[in-house]
Amino acid sequence: MIKIIYKPLNLLKMMKKILVALCIGTICACSSAGSFIGTGMSVDFAKPSPWGDKIIDGSQICSIDGGVGATPPLVIRNVPKGTNAFIVEFNDADDLSLSYGGGLGTIAYKHDGSDTAWLLPVKGETPKMPEFAFIYNPHRFNNVNGSGYMPPCSGAKKHHYFAIVKAVDLSITPASKNAVVLDTKEIDLGVY
Description:
Blueprint: H1 8-32, E1 42-45, E2 74-77, E3 85-92, E4 106-110, E5 117-119, E6 133-137, E7 160-169, E8 180-191
Antiparallel strand pairs: 1-2, 2-5, 3-4, 3-7, 4-6, 7-8
């Protein structure tokens, strides 16, 4: 039988090495995963707007439920340098298949590089986009194809909706999916 004897000094040295390796590994993993250090970017609803209340306005829901919804108008301040677009993923937190990655559609908005951006509304349930935006990924709502953004459509089941806003460096072509994320913020859209 072989006895292993741990010396406290060796154990302490080993723990330090493990801790250093974990720290270095975490830093490397973040760097290679495209993580970023936030710039203090802020996202809020532009005013006046039917958005920004805890309950989503009835005009901003899907046509199935009697609305004519469009994306919320947003104002973004402290835009990171190098941003030439914003990618906005719209999600329904209470529907597992629509709760991530832009389940209700992902719209990309072109940006001129200024410190403040105004993201104008984009009509929902249509593949037609204004010149300043394009469909980055279509919605996944009930296999309804063809449109970029699907407004809240839970049938008033009190689903919680949110959007992830990403400031990115992106070649502005619908075919390009190689975005370098410079900052990300989440905004609560409300309940319907």
